[in-house]
Design goal:
With 474 residues, the protein is mainly beta. It has a domain at 336-474. It has strands at 2-3, 9-10, 20-21, 24-27, 38-43, 53-55, 75-79, 82-86, 93-95, 105-107, 114-116, 124-131, 140-145, 160-164, 175-176, 185-189, 197-204, 213-218, 233-237, 247-249, 258-262, 273-277, 286-291, 306-310, 320-322, 331-335, 343-350, 359-364, 379-383, 393-395, 404-408, 420-423, 432-437, 448-452, 462-464. FG-GAP repeats lie at residues 111-173, 417-461.
Length: 474
């Protein structure tokens, strides 16, 4: 975690507070690995403000022979043909990085690559992602602002999402979210007060039309009739080439412009994490929705956690889908194991076994290890994708190595799985799994990240981090 060396930035404070603190930011380890095309950031003074993967196309040279040490005032990543100096970020803004590809060394100027939020305590940058929403060949920037208050600030904490269209001059400009007018991007407004739309964002071509669609989590939404407090929701806004206006109301999604996915039970908090991946390999991106407050099969295990997988398709969308209607043909639900595990607080995907199907990666922040004897050590579930044969539900307890496996953390309160992601780190064609362990304790709460290399076969039902440090898990 880095502390801003030059400024005192607005903190989250209270809902309408006026506190000011020195801003902080953290840079995920994905930036130091070759072959990844992502830059991931954590923005804010609280570890609860976690940014999702932010994709920026760039050419990355061969891996460095050594990594320079972190310093409090800056982080410098040096590779054989490029280097960069990255300073901390202010809360309620997002900074974009354009990396040199010609061997040059460049100091990044934050003043000309900054996106500013609109109002105080909007939490702009709570989540970030990208995708080519308008199909012009340039990735567009997607920014969650889950504290936004809707059009004219009339719906407190409904949440907002900003989409800034990419283009050849994007990297030399600065933007204010209030300037979005349909030509340069647009704003998506949440529905009801307190829904927290934008707490998570992602993108993917769910309806197979060639345009990336915007995926939005609204974890405090209360269902179709607002009758189930904090059941959670997710919105899918379809991409298109043109016809954008300055704002889109999530309440207007009608099946043609997108749709809403409603959670099941009060307190599920569906949508705290959203991601995408073609789990059934049909060419349409599937929507992954983390439900860390879910209570498992028959609501028999409080806060065990769940994940809803909604299959993409080319047509036939209705304005809304109830997650309770997933039956194996249109998607399925993955149930966690034990009470209090919070499975699904984070979700991601990647083809770990190289069979052509995206596998579902699920963070289990408060899992207690293989014998439930290591409180909050944390776990991660990997459920292998496949073309067919899905039932309406999948029990994580059935993972046996052939259909997926479990990764267990090391020690007490490590919170392994607080963040999960994937990418082909070693270039062998298999997605490798990244698992954050923010409270691992070589030094008190210094934290660690583990990389588990993908492979075609030979998986067992579980992998223990502690006994694999020197082999497949680094």
């Amino acid at each position: 975690r880095l502390t801003c060396p030059t400024c005192a930035c607005p903190s989250r404070g209270t809902r309408r507070g006026n506190l000011r603190k020195r801003c902080t930011a953290a840079l995920r380890l994905e930036t130091i690995f070759p072959k990844l095309r992502v830059l991931a950031l954590t923005v804010g003074e609280s570890t609860s403000m976690v940014a999702s993967l932010f994709e920026i196309p760039f050419r990355w040279p061969p891996a460095p022979q050594s990594r320079p040490p972190l310093r409090q005032d800056k982080l410098q990543a040096t590779v054989p043909t490029a280097s960069m100096t990255i300073f901390a970020l202010m809360v309620s803004l997002v900074c974009l990085f354009v990396l040199p590809t010609n061997g040059a060394t460049r100091q990044l100027n934050f003043s000309n690559r900054t996106i500013y939020g609109v109002d105080s305590v909007d939490y702009t940058g709570m989540a970030v992602s990208s995708g080519d929403i308008n199909g012009d060949g340039y990735p567009d920037v997607i920014i969650g602002a889950n504290g936004g208050d809707g059009a004219s600030n009339a719906v407190v904490d409904a949440g907002e999402v900003y989409v800034f269209f990419g283009g050849p001059s994007f990297s030399t400009l600065s933007f204010h979210a209030s300037s979005l007018d349909g030509s340069n991007g647009f704003t998506i407004y949440g529905v009801n007060s307190g829904d927290s739309a934008g707490i998570s964002v992602s993108s993917g071509d769910v309806n197979c039309d060639g345009y990336a669609d915007v995926l939005i989590g609204a974890s405090l939404g209360s269902g179709a009739s607002n009758g189930a407090a904090n059941t959670g929701e997710a919105y899918v806004v379809f991409g298109k080439a043109s016809g954008w206006v300055a704002s889109v109301q999530a309440s207007s999604l009608d099946g043609r412009s997108g749709f809403t996915i409603y959670g099941v039970d009060s307190g599920d908090a569906a949508g705290n994490g959203v991601s995408r991946g073609d789990v059934n390999g049909d060419g349409c991106v599937d929507v992954l929705i983390g439900v860390y407050g879910g209570d498992g099969s028959s609501n028999s295990a409080s806060n065990t956690g769940e994940v809803h997988v909604v299959f993409g398709k080319a047509s036939g969308w209705t304005p809304s889908i109830e997650a309770s209607s997933l039956d194996g043909s249109n998607g399925f639900t993955i149930y966690g194991v034990d009470s209090g595990d919070w499975a699904g607080r984070t979700v991601s995907s990647g083809d770990v076994n190289g069979d052509g199907y995206a596998d579902v990666l699920i963070g289990v922040t408060y899992g207690n290890g293989p014998s439930n004897n290591a409180a909050n050590t944390g776990e991660m579930y990997i459920v292998f994708g496949k073309a067919s044969g899905w039932a309406s539900t999948f029990q994580v307890s059935s993972l046996d190595g052939s259909n997926g496996f479990i990764v267990y953390g090391i020690g007490f309160r490590d919170n392994a799985g607080r963040s999960v992601s994937s990418g082909d780190i070693n270039g062998d064609g298999y997605a490798d799994v990244l698992m954050g362990m923010p409270k691992e304790n070589p030094v008190t709460d210094t934290g660690e990240v583990y990389v588990l290399f993908g492979k075609a076969s030979g998986w067992t039902a579980s992998v223990q981090v502690a006994i694999c440090r020197s082999s497949s898990l680094k």
